[in-house]
From TrEMBL:
<dbReference type="GO" id="GO:0008168">
    <property type="term" value="F:methyltransferase activity"/>
</dbReference>
<feature type="region of interest" description="Disordered">
    <location>
        <begin position="1"/>
        <end position="54"/>
    </location>
</feature>
<protein>
    <submittedName>
        <fullName>Class I SAM-dependent methyltransferase</fullName>
    </submittedName>
</protein>
<keyword id="KW-0808">Transferase</keyword>
<dbReference type="GO" id="GO:0032259">
    <property type="term" value="P:methylation"/>
</dbReference>
<feature type="domain" description="Methyltransferase type 11">
    <location>
        <begin position="105"/>
        <end position="197"/>
    </location>
</feature>
<dbReference type="InterPro" id="IPR050508">
    <property type="entry name" value="Methyltransf_Superfamily"/>
</dbReference>
<dbReference type="InterPro" id="IPR029063">
    <property type="entry name" value="SAM-dependent_MTases_sf"/>
</dbReference>
<feature type="compositionally biased region" description="Basic and acidic residues">
    <location>
        <begin position="29"/>
        <end position="46"/>
    </location>
</feature>
<dbReference type="Pfam" id="PF08241">
    <property type="entry name" value="Methyltransf_11"/>
</dbReference>
<dbReference type="InterPro" id="IPR013216">
    <property type="entry name" value="Methyltransf_11"/>
</dbReference>
<keyword id="KW-0489">Methyltransferase</keyword>
Length: 298
């Protein structure tokens, strides 16, 4: 069993009240309904196991995710993370007026709210996600551009098909080998194309995934890359997140053929009084929650 303070940096989970049961060695018996909950642990999980687990998890939890976060995300806004940084102000993909006519690939698009915003600027987005149910939510809110259900580690597109690629917490935190994704994105981007992606800020892995004061004390090694896994009673992974240090992420980007031109760590704004799992105004005022990588394919 992992220690009770196993880092939980679950982008998908909605709140600490629905934590998986982590049984202590001497814990009292849990009743049957609780015993069916997944066990949270840290163990290795490969490319195939991670994709299979996350496809299932997002299919099962897409409805709840959209119900919980849909209002904050907005049906046609481009929000980079729980801080609420909006592409309208950030312009990490470039000035909005230059998006018109651009072919843009969104990875791990979820309900494709970001792609809807891009379409509103005159861009031609393609929204890709491994979860069929997430993409059904894209249809529900009115996506009128291609939706592709596929794993980001093997993109079903020809070389040099896109001018831009983007991802707001999609795919990259969940794959066992992010270089597979980055090399694929490099392949499908045209020379000079830009990739911008946000992930959980790596420092968060050293802290418990709690929004309150209990989330402010280091409880694990930042350098421990062992994946966070929730598994069923047979030991099958049902949810996986992978940790890379900041240096690992930079090396992944560069080794995949990109030039890193900016690394944005959005500060928690005073207007945002909401919480998103372990992301909160309290923690956001002290440590970064999101890292956004701005990369160019030369
Ligand atoms: C935290 S959600 C982000 C969705 C959207 N960008 C948003 O901000 O709501 C992560 C998304 O990544 C998708 N995902 C996870 N692993 C993936 C993979 N290997 N390939 C493509 N999408 C993946 C999930 O299905 C999910 O929709």
């Amino acid at each position: 069993m992992p220690p009770r303070d196993t880092p939980r940096v679950r982008v998908g989970r909605k709140s600490t009240t629905r934590e998986p049961i982590i049984q202590e060695a001497d814990a009292p018996q849990v009743h049957e309904a609780e015993a069916a909950e997944p066990e949270a642990t840290r163990r290795e999980a490969g490319v195939t196991e991670s994709s299979r687990a996350n496809r299932g998890w997002w299919d099962r939890n897409a409805d709840e995710y959209q119900s919980e976060h849909g209002t904050f995300l907005g049906d046609d806004r481009f929000v980079w993370g729980p801080e609420g940084l909006d592409e309208v102000e950030a312009e990490l993909l470039g000035p909005a007026e230059e998006l018109k006519g651009k072919d843009v690939l969104e990875l791990g698009a979820g309900a494709a709210q970001c792609s809807r915003w891009l379409a509103g600027q005159g861009a031609r987005p393609v929204a890709l996600d491994i979860s069929h149910r997430q993409l059904q939510h894209a249809l529900r809110i009115g996506a009128s551009f291609p939706l592709v259900c596929a794993d980001a580690v093997a993109l079903p597109f020809a070389d040099a098909s896109f001018d831009l690629a983007c991802s707001a917490y999609g795919a990259l935190p969940f794959v066992a080998d992010p270089r597979l994704v980055l090399r694929e994105v490099h392949r499908v981007l045209r020379p000079g194309g830009r990739l911008v992606f946000s992930v959980t800020h790596p420092i968060r892995w050293a802290f418990p995934d709690e929004p309150g004061p209990e989330g402010l004390s280091v409880s694990a090694s930042y350098f421990d890359r062992t994946p966070y896994v929730e598994q069923d009673e047979q030991g099958r992974a049902v949810y996986v997140e992978h940790h890379r240090t900041l240096g690992d992420r930079v090396r992944d980007v560069v080794a995949s053929g990109f030039r890193l031109v900016d690394l944005v760590e959005p500060e928690w704004p005073s207007w945002n009084t909401g919480e998103w799992g372990g992301w909160s105004p309290l923690r956001g005022s002290l440590i970064p929650g999101t890292a956004i990588f701005v990369c160019v394919r030369d």
